[in-house]
Write a structure and sequence with these properties.
Elements: H1 5-13, E1 22-24, E2 32-33, E3 39-49, H2 60-78, E4 81-91, H3 96-112, E5 116-124, E6 128-138, E7 153-157, H4 162-170, H5 179-186, H6 192-198, E8 204-207, H7 212-223, E9 226-230, H8 238-247, H9 252-255, E10 262-266, H10 268-271, E11 278-285, E12 290-294, E13 297-301
Parallel strand pairs: 4-5, 9-12
Antiparallel strand pairs: 1-2, 3-6, 4-6, 7-10, 7-11, 8-10, 9-11, 12-13
The structure holds adenosine-5'-diphosphate and magnesium ion.
């Protein structure tokens, strides 16, 4: 007999609470959380829909991981520490093998960051996965998109373009060492630790989900400033550099999404204190648009990212 809704939640998604801010988890009408004195609750939600955000045959372990990672990445970009998540699952049918792998990918990442799954909803329909993530940030410490200052240096953490290359590889591009790019595409890690450090010194921050051009574009728009990026400063893996050499597609690391690195702006003075793995790629200025210096030419880029309804 197929598992009931309750059996399914019990078997695949219920585990003891780990984070002391969570007082009541799965099993009642609501979960209960306690917000410590002097903190604010950071709240975000992201949905992944089959055939829009992932392929039909996507590995369920990776899907569980990525679904959680993209939500935790939003907390990271605000400088919040993740505490709890809820999970709304819409499934075409109960496939126990699929659920076992999906929940393992999801909960393995949750456990890594001491994040509790405290509730959710389970319904039948086209495969749709929604997470709400809740995090804590000291009052007035959260980073937003709106406070970039003219003269700020623009930084990114880690490397960019690997997830975009991973997608190209999935679509048939062949490359000598595909593992790193595929890993970045399938199982990105949210920059939680980096976010906590950056919030102490940066002016604005965003996570790179739609590509640096689109996401830095959001900072520029909200802060009412412009930016100049130097292509030669972008932190690119050997594989992405080889891809660009072979195809001429130099814009990949600028416009491909799914990297989930952080892009932040910081005063030159504060930048001297940075201790994390990051690279300065440009500067905030008063031009009201985004330009890239590429092979001694300045190119103005459209900052619009992927739009679901256009
Ligand atoms: P209600 O009818 O009150 O909405 P449900 O029957 O939907 O309750 O859910 C029962 C309990 O299981 C609730 O605590 C809910 O938060 C939790 N829950 C339901 N679906 C999920 C899920 N996919 N993941 C985690 N918890 C879930
Ligand atoms: Mg319900």
């Amino acid at each position: 007999m197929a598992l009931s809704e309750f059996g399914l939640i019990q078997r695949f998604f219920t585990q003891p609470l780990k984070n002391s801010a969570n007082k009541l988890g799965i099993g009642d009408d609501c979960a209960l959380m306690e917000i410590p004195e002097g903190y604010q609750l950071a709240v975000t939600t992201d949905t992944m829909v089959e055939n829009v955000h992932f392929f039909k045959e996507a590995n369920p372990y990776c899907l569980g991981h990525k679904l959680l990672a993209v939500n935790l990445s939003d907390l990271a970009s605000m400088g919040a520490e993740p505490v709890a998540v809820t999970l709304a699952l819409t499934l075409p049918s109960v496939n126990e093998q699929w659920l076992a792998k999906f929940s393992k990918g999801f909960l393995t990442l949750a456990n890594k960051y001491q994040v509790d799954l405290i509730g959710g909803d389970t319904t039948q329909g086209a495969l749709t996965l929604t997470v709400q993530a809740l995090g804590l940030v000291p009052k007035n410490k959260a980073m937003t998109r709106a406070k970039a200052q003219i003269g700020d240096l623009i930084y990114v953490t880690g490397k960019i373009g690997d997830a975009g290359l991973g997608l190209k590889i999935k679509q048939g591009y062949s490359c000598e060492f595909p593992e790193q790019s595929l890993q970045q595409f399938n199982q990105p890690l949210p920059c939680i630790k980096e976010g906590l450090i950056i919030r102490e010194c940066a002016n604005a921050c965003i996570d790179i989900s739609d590509g640096i051009v689109a996401d830095l574009g959001h900072i520029l728009e909200k802060s009412n400033v412009g930016a100049l990026i130097e292509f030669s400063k972008l932190p690119l893996s050997n594989e992405v550099q080889t891809y660009i050499k072979n195809t001429g597609d130099w814009q990949l690391p600028l416009i491909a999404g799914d990297d989930y690195q952080l892009c932040f702006t910081i005063s030159p003075e504060n930048a001297k204190q940075l201790t994390i793995d990051c690279q300065q790629i440009g500067i905030i200025d008063n031009h009201k648009n985004l330009r890239v210096l590429y092979q001694e030419k300045i190119i103005t880029l459209k900052t619009q990212g992927y739009e679901h309804f256009s």
